[in-house]
Amino acid sequence: MSIVVRTLSEQVLEILRDRIVSGRLPQEAIIRQDALASELGVSKIPLREALARLEQEGLLTSQANRGYFIRPMSIDAAEEIFELRLSIEPRATARAATLATDAERRVATQAYEALDAAANDPDGEVAVANRAFHTSLVRPGGRLLTTQLVERLAVQAERYVVAHLQPAGREDRAHVEHRELFDAWLAGDAEKTAALADTHIRGTLDDLRKELGTANSV
After folding, report:
1. How many Å apart are CA 189 and CA 140, to the nearest integer?
2. Which residues pair with residue 184 across a beta bridge?
3. Are 110 and 64 in contact (CB under 8 A)?
4. pLDDT tens by residue, 164-203
5. Cα–Cα distance between 71 and 75 in angstroms, integer?
6. How many secondary structure helices (H) and strands (E) does the chain include?
7. 28 with 70: CB under 8 angstroms?
8. What are phi and psi of 84, to 5 degrees?
9. pLDDT in tens, 53-69
10. Segment holding 66, helix H or strand E
11. Helices (DSSP H) in the chain: which residue ranges?
């Protein structure tokens, strides 16, 4: 059994990221560090480390002498995030499908099952589970930089994934698409895996265009 030890700043990072993704911290809200540190029972040092990480992830923005703010969602940001995903993820997922070991397939199966459980639980962390699932389909490719890029883009996509799943029926469609993608990946069918990953990501972006505004097509 492996034990994952997280630093205090990493724990704070996860708490704040979850609040941003879920919308509990509203867009463009200012982060009041004194109040937040007091609420979480931590000093400002781990809090500032977490805020700096969240800025690197693209969830926060900072202004001199004013502090940190929640970065607003926009169709332009969604376009950039999902176009980058389309340029990297389908091929990376296809490559991993042909190279995954039995152990890596078990890890991906656990990630899929966790996503399925989160999607059926109103309190489930579906965005986090979605990120873990998509990353598990890429990691067996053995390319560290590619995996890191996919994971970082998935972090930035999480708020948009939540927005995408809100309209009725979207979760059912996402479930079907994830199942088809996972089955092709398990079968080691690189061509089908790439095509399904592309369709899935592109479909999410098309939905976001309808909700957030119109931009250029990919």
Report:
1. 14
2. none
3. no
4. 666 655 777 888 999 999 999 999 999 999 999 999 999 9
5. 13
6. 9, 2
7. yes
8. -65, -40
9. 999 888 898 888 788 98
10. none
11. 8-22, 33-40, 44-56, 75-99, 102-119, 126-136, 144-165, 170-186, 190-212
